Model the fold of this input.
Amino acid sequence: MNNVQLLSKPAPASTTKPIELYIFIDPLCNKALTMQTMLRKLQLQYEHYFTWRYILSTKLASLNTLGRRTKGCLTGAELDITHPALPSIAVKAAELQGKRASSRFLLKLQEHALLKTKEVTSYSALIEIAKESNIDIDEFTSDFGSKEAARAFQCDLHIMREMEIEEVPSIVFFNECIEDEGLKVSGMYTYEVYVQILQEMMNEEIICNPLPTFDELFSRFQTLTTSDVAEIYSISIQDAERELKKRMLQQKIERLQCEEITLWRNKIN
Done:
């Protein structure tokens, strides 16, 4: 396997699980969605072994331009700007309310990006997405324009430079021993490769949890693509679509569609 490198861990792990994953993504890149599918399956089957955190990327030149234009201004209700760095800063603002809030916001952000239902690089659209994500909107609006969110994003960019991440998505695997080097895997590989790496990092036979039922899957992840379902259950796109349509007819899920992609969402009663 190419593009594998050993790295030092930047800080001690704050977890009792033996493995920690640093996942480097551009949240609006199509490859990030492929990585997310793989990560979901890895969570379902092996999450008892690892925790994970997203490290967000954007172009530094773009970010510096944004800083000059918006310094001290993002909290103005009348202001609406559009910039490629805004979605990443918004994710970090949501993260200040906790990992679950950040995950909900990121998934809703990607949903609108995929369906092209909002201009997701717009400040006002990101505020609307935060409302849809059921996070504290007053806190989010305040954090969006705060030094803390900007500093958190700058920290992500610093980690990217420190670990010399030149390709996204990439994953760095660390074990619980801070002295040991991490394993950097640049680019995307098949699901089996990541399972193999996890087993090698554990240095023992790892136990695979059974996959959930369709109902349990949508209860956990809310929104999935047809490809997500096919990959998670190792079935064809056609078989996945057949099963999803059955559940749509049973009023369990609903279909969201545009020309390029189909999303399936847990039906809101």
Observations:
- The chain is about 50% helix and 15% strand.
